[in-house]
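Listing S7. Sequence submitted for prediction.
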Amino acid sequence: MNGFMYYCPVRVHFGENGVERVLPMELQQVGATVMLAYGGGSVKRTGLYDKLVGILEQAGKRVVDFGGITSNPTYEMVLRGAETVKDENVDFILAVGGGSVMDCVKIISSASKAPKDYWEMFFNDHKAITDGTPWGAVVTLSGTGSEMNGGAGITNAAKGTKATLFGTHARFAISDPTYLLTVPQKQLASGIFDNLSHCMETYFQDGDCVSDAMNEAVMHDIVRNARAWRKDPQNLELLSNLLWDSALPQSFLFGCGKRGGFQCHPIEAQLCAYTNSNHGMALAVIHPSYYRHIMKDAPEKFARFGQKVFDLDPAGKTAEALAEEAVEALASFIRDLGLDSTFTALGLNVDEEILHQVAESCAIADGVPRRLDRAEIYALLREVL
């Protein structure tokens, strides 16, 4: 087991009516001007926006509105937010939404305190600002677990890339499972698979330690609760479990003691840069194809995955046969979630030229069963076109 340093500073308030119960208390610890950051119209349609503005004003805060953060948040939006923070003398940012809003706010927080362009500072100078403008989150969508860390996926249209930057951790996160009742089922299914993807990309890295045992338990819980949720989508107990399931892997706890190396996420990030793909839905297309390419490089690990996560019976089967069954069980689970298995079915405007561009520009990971070359990345993408 490798050595590590673990730190997760986020206070999580989990449970129903969290905004009413704890937000006034948290607001006592922040300054006078609060920027309310959110995405599209759902926050207003559900009445959550008005509720939050009322609580902020009752706490004596001046509210600065910053809406319109899109899925796959852009660096242009980050810069707009950072300028708003500086122009309005914002003391605190309240992010309301799912992973896209939180990712955007993390980098807004850091960019607002950066002495130069934050993208250039992060990638050229290899420096990050982790103590930017303080922020907190009201989580409305499970899956990304973005409230638990400082990492953010940001699309830079000018550079034709989507990349992970690191910024500021949230001071607190309010996670109320009742908000998931308002989320369209396919969107929630996408988030559920995104969460499982985080777990799997950590699990199949080099190493085998107690972190894997915890990971297996959460992956099994995701599969069990997600299948039950598909039959009973208003069940708050199931949604509560899925919401907490999404937070745990993104606290990076399951990576402790292991060597790093995600591969599907960098592939999807570049696909998104060219197509603006839905993150979780595109990952659901890529994962089975990728695993069919590498399962023979780690048959024992894939066999264990099948037993621990999908309850496969190993009796009379070789590790190789059980590994293959595990990957097909994953593909079946994706279908059970109602997600698509090809880019065409997903509705993406992709062709072989775009797939070549994705394969040539994505990061190639170490720390996984086998390092791929770009020709094989193109091949596995071509197989699910």
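Caption to Listing S7: primary sequence and predicted structure tokens for the chain studied. The longest helix spans residues 210-231. The chain has two domains: 11-179, 185-382.
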